[in-house]
């Protein structure tokens, strides 16, 4: 194969990666490049199988700004090896290993030899719901020897062998996140004053989540810290207080839409969970879940 043919093949592969996985930059690492990618979608499951050798993929701030969506990728190494780097952590994945990558942060992936990888999109809101008490640590190697790695891989590969409905696909995603949770950065056993304050703040927010007056100043007063101190406590977990409150309200709205019977007014739902502007509620809901509240409800109407 001539150099020109290899470059053309490489460019076609990168275009397909950008269509399926989001915006990436890339470069060749040798004269023996090979690459292909296939996509699988069923309900809420969105994943791709990437086969590649002698290439480097990367996301800088430029690619991130050009891309869409803020989610996580669970990368399952199926064959060969890959070097993955993000947020100061650099790991080598071998067959059976898993790691988590944040799409909103710069990252780098190096594939020297024939590698096969499954990339599963994990919606950010689902990860946040299950990891409320810790910041997610990307690019942490979950070794193939860990029981959770084998279970998660068998679960997700098994799902590709059948067509799953909306509810089953969402349950599969939740199960994968639950299996990987111990390796995502949970701070079990941390009983420092900051963590006690954080947990107290979360409890207060959940107890008053439907109150329109809920704000950082009120939370800070109730947990006994300054507003600046509250911001620092949440920042340790990669969270912003007001954003967290908004997302918790939206999560409650989504939960009610999944369980609701009948055709209640959507504006009333927003008001019930602290949104006093129906237009803002609809825009915020779509930004978090990808569809409007009405479209979300239709998914579960049957």
Structural classification: alpha+beta
The spatial strand order of the largest sheet comes to 1-4-9-6-7
Roughly how much helix do the residues carry, as a percent range?
40-55%
Overall geometry comes to globular
Count of extended strands: 10
Mean pLDDT: 87
Radius of gyration: 21 Å
What's the number of helices?
12
Order of helices and strands: HEEEEHEEEEEEHHHHHHHHHH
End-to-end Cα distance: 54 Å
Which spans of ≥5 residues are poorly predicted at pLDDT below 50?
none
The biggest sheet amounts to: 5 strands, antiparallel
Question: What amount of the residues lies in strands?
Answer: 15-25%
Short account of what is shown:
This protein has 302 residues and is α+β, with helices and mostly antiparallel strands. Helix content is 45%, strand content 22%.
